[in-house]
Specification:
- The chain is 62% helix and 7% strand.
- With 118 residues, it is mainly α.
- It has two domains: 64 residues, Orthogonal Bundle (Arc Repressor Mutant, subunit A); 43 residues.
- The chain has a two-stranded antiparallel ribbon with strand order 1-2.
- Helix 1 crosses helix 3 and helix 2 crosses helix 3.
- The radius of gyration is 18 Å and the shape is elongated.
- It starts with 5 loop residues before the first helix and ends with a helix.
């Protein structure tokens, strides 16, 4: 996977929020409800790009085609975090700033995860 543009992220959010595979029409309905009216042709183009980037898989046996996320939102965010950390010249400084900026609750979760207790 890679990075997402703003419109791609909006479409992925709609897919991640869906309980079942979605069509471009389903995504359109969701975005219309959120005040972001887009043409179905635009959404089909975005979905095609997302499929080429490895974010979604399509079921072409169904009409209209249905799309599902290949990875979860959490997987995507974790990959972004690893990518940013991997690009850092001083990983320790980046980790210090990250840990210094998290809430006490998130710090507790990090401690549990790092200790293997979670």
């Amino acid at each position: 996977m890679g990075t997402l543009g703003e419109l791609e992220r909006t479409v992925m959010d709609a897919i991640w929020d869906a309980a079942t595979p979605v069509s471009a029409y389903d995504v359109k309905d969701q975005l219309d409800a959120d005040g972001r009216a887009l043409a179905v042709t635009t959404l089909l183009t975005v979905l095609s790009r997302l499929e080429k980037k490895g974010f979604v898989a399509s079921d072409r046996s169904a009409r209209p085609h249905r799309y599902t996320a290949i990875a979860s939102r959490a997987d995507h965010v974790a990959e972004l975090m690893h990518s940013v950390l991997g690009d850092a010249g001083d990983r320790t400084a980046v980790l210090e700033r990250f840990v210094g900026g998290v809430s006490p609750e998130d710090a507790a979760v990090l401690r549990q995860l790092l200790s293997g207790a979670a």
